[in-house]
Specification:
Radius of gyration: 30 Å
Number of strands: 32
Number of domains: 4
Structural class: alpha+beta
Strand content: 25-35%
CATH class of the largest domain: Alpha Beta
Oligomer: single chain
Strand order of the largest sheet: 15-19-20-27-24-23-21-22
Largest sheet: 8 strands, mixed
RNA sequence: GCCACCGUAGCUCAGUUGGUUAGAGCGGCUGAUUCGUAAUCAGCAGGUCAUGAGUUCGACUCUCAUCGGUGGCUCCA
């Protein structure tokens, strides 16, 4: 007999060799139906793998992440089997589960290319195999045998993976006629999978290295119920409607023109209003924190970037230098603001009393992003950073860093960004040649970030190898409508640029010291930030930020003059108000402006014109009654105040 | 940059296996209507079917190239 401890700490005895599925059955049949896999003594465990010793057991169902993961991973194997049957000779790379589904990287025989038209056949074959309800069978194999198995099949990618594994820890899983190298765990059998859909196809370099061969990556989703697949597809459609590229076009916030160039956004009047409002909002916060705003040119001498190290790192893949005709000088389109700000620091001797010196700029920069990477406003070639460089004494690093975290968290709170992750991006210690600077400086910079994040109680993840080439970062990541992660806010500790630009300050002891730089951008870039904001709000911006706060609706053309007077009075007071003076009925005007999500509609007719009032309708047909223009101003002001200064 | 796919009016889309003057709704313009809280009526304009070559008696439809876009991969100071 074996003693099994469950998560609620209860202990029960079962026969030796019982599987998690057996145990679940003994507890309750309904539970057994839902168990997909398990964790035994902290190890991922198949639901059908016997247990021969005492230990703790956790069941995994569709409702938890591990259960979904098992399900999707098994679906990837199912798809692999289908592909092998449909295209014999297919070679397999890796096929993991993802957050929403799974993929498999394959090399198809004879240069076969899969297209959308092949998806139904693959899905059909997958369901055909699923219905056979073949068990996923686990087998421990010796390294030599595993190698032989896959060599015989000609699966060189699998052989490469096996050769890197340790003998004694290798397992294979077989379902039906398909065997794969796999750590598991897997579903008991293919019949658990009731609905599948191949979602897309993509090229993917083997092992993520662009020097390797490009394999075909087939993406899919799988569910235990058809209804779940249907719901998932509806959800996808909904997400598409929130896409900032679509909303940006509909609301006339921004546009692109092939004639202007790829990835070069044109900010339209309404988008510009949003952007300027955000800029003013942040500038005001930064003033409170002692930042000084500067403006620097859009180009800079190439030597500036040779000094900073950026040219050596990115020069070749950048917009190429601009040559002056007579002096034969070279200028770069400014790819970042830090060197310019370093030069501002250098303008005069700095005392320890001057620090921290906080130089801020809404600086537009230009980077030659690869064409395949461009994406709406989230990845562009011309963008404006809400940049600042804090030149600090070493003893001030932590306090300044924490202050920046406060600014970012405040912005996120005001804009209701709740779903972010704070990512500590460190240097890859195995790839030091990708970075500049000494080990000592890196160690100091990294620990400064880790400590500050800890002090602020941030829930952080750590990503090795994601640091900037001159220093580690704390990045605030947010997801867009289709689940892609983007870096918004970033804070970076940098010992290197002060060194390279030979920055100094005089200490109390009259000796020279090196300041440390903190690079930081709470929005990251206005472009990306607005994009994510659009997707978070589905284009319904808060009142303080929305480009049109109210629209005046004259009942008929007779009241257009009065409507214009109302709008002028409000616009003069710096509210953003328009007039809908089309010769339409009031019902039509209300409908159209409701669909445009205008927060307030001011209906004016004979009565209002005579009494100098407006009839206020809040979006969503809430009638706030008739009031004077002054009272309406107070109403908006109060609401904006509430948005910008939430209680708690 | 690499792989796959896509490109018809301002927007959303239709357009049979290549075959007459490429259609619709919304939007726009003009006229009528002057209206009280989610769509007034009528008329009109708008397209070198992304661009350029080619195949063909004939190309929106087939082929190639270029440009732009979409989903990934790689990259992201």
């Amino acid at each position: 007999m074996i003693k099994i401890t469950f998560p609620d700490q209860s202990v029960k005895e079962f026969e030796g060799g019982s599987t998690p599925l057996d145990i679940a059955k003994a507890l309750s049949n309904s539970l057994a139906k839902e168990v997909l896999s398990a964790t035994f003594n902290g190890n991922p465990w198949d639901a059908t793998r016997p247990i021969n010793e005492d230990g703790t057991l956790v069941f995994h169902k569709w409702d938890d992440d591990e259960g979904k993961h098992t399900f999707r991973h098994s679906a990837a194997h199912l798809m692999a089997e289908a592909l092998e049957q449909l295209y014999p000779g297919t070679k397999f790379g890796i096929g993991p589960a993802l957050e929403n589904g799974f993929y498999y990287d394959v090399e198809l025989p004879g240069g076969k290319v899969i297209t959308d038209e092949d998806f139904p056949a693959i899905e059909k074959k997958m369901m055909e195999i699923a219905r056979q309800n073949n068990p996923y069978v686990r087998k421990e194999v010796a390294k030599a045998d595993a190698l032989k198995d896959f060599q015989t099949k000609g699966d060189n990618y699998k052989c490469e993976l096996i050769s890197e594994l340790e003998d004694g820890s290798i397992t294979e899983y077989t379902q039906g006629g398909y065997t794969d190298l796999c750590r598991g765990p897997h579903l008991p059998s293919t019949g658990y999978i009731k609905a599948v859909k191949i979602t897309s196809i993509a090229g993917a370099y083997w092992r993520g290295n662009e020097n390797n061969k490009m394999l075909t990556r087939v993406y899919g989703v799988a569910f235990p119920k058809q209804k779940m697949l249907d719901e998932y597809l509806v959800l996808l459609e909904e997400a598409k409607k929130r896409d900032h590229r679509k909303i940006g076009k509909d609301m006339e916030l921004f546009a692109f023109s092939a004639r202007v160039g790829q990835g070069l956004p044109l900010w339209l009047p309404k988008g510009t209003l949003v952007r300027e409002t955000l800029t003013k909002f942040l500038a005001k916060i930064q003033r409170k924190y002692g930042y000084q705003q500067v403006i620097t040119p859009h180009i800079g001498n190439k030597d500036l970037y040779v000094t900073s190290g950026h040219y050596a790192k990115y020069g070749k893949d950048s917009f190429q230098p601009i040559h002056t005709p007579s002096e034969d000088e070279e200028f770069l389109l400014k790819p970042m603001n830090c060197p310019h700000h370093c030069e501002i620091y250098r303008l005069k001797p700095r005392s320890y009393k001057d620090l921290p010196l906080r130089i801020a700029e809404f600086g537009t920069v230009y980077r030659y992003e690869q064409s395949g990477e461009l994406h709406g406003l989230t990845r562009v070639r011309s963008f404006t950073q809400d940049d600042a460089h804090l030149f600090v004494r070493p003893d001030q690093i932590k306090q300044e860093f924490c202050n920046v975290i406060d600014i970012i968290l405040y912005i996120f709170k005001i804009l209701h960004f709740t779903e972010y992750t704070a990512q500590i991006s460190l240097r890859d210690p195995d790839n030091k040649e990708k970075y500049i600077g000494t080990d000592e400086h890196w160690a100091m910079a990294e620990s400064a970030i880790i400590e500050a994040a800890k002090e602020k109680g941030l829930n952080t993840t750590v990503e090795t190898g994601e640091a900037a080439f001159y220093g580690p970062k704390l990045d605030f990541m947010v997801k867009d409508a289709i689940g892609r992660k983007w870096q918004l806010g970033t804070i970076q500790v940098d010992y290197n640029l002060p060194e390279r630009f030979d920055l100094e300050f005089t200490g109390a002891d009259d000796k020279k010291y090196r300041p440390v730089m903190i690079h930081r951008a709470p929005f990251g870039s206005l472009e990306r930030f607005v994009a994510v904001l659009i997707e978070n709000t589905a284009g319904q911006f808060p009142l303080w930020l929305t480009p049109t706060q109210a629209v005046v609706l004259p009942i008929s053309d007779k009241y257009n003059d009065y409507a214009n007077q109302v709008a002028t009075a409000l616009n003069d007071a710096e509210y953003r108000v328009e007039v809908d003076d089309r010769s339409e009925k009031i019902g039509r005007k209300i409908r159209d402006n409701e669909t445009k999500h205008i927060p307030f509609m001011l209906v004016v007719g004979e009565k209002e014109a005579a009494e100098g009032q407006v009839s206020v309708r809040k979006q969503g047909k809430i009638d706030l009654g008739t009031m004077s223009i002054e009272d309406f101003k107070k109403l908006i002001a109060a609401e904006v105040e509430k948005e910008l200064n939430p209680e708690d």
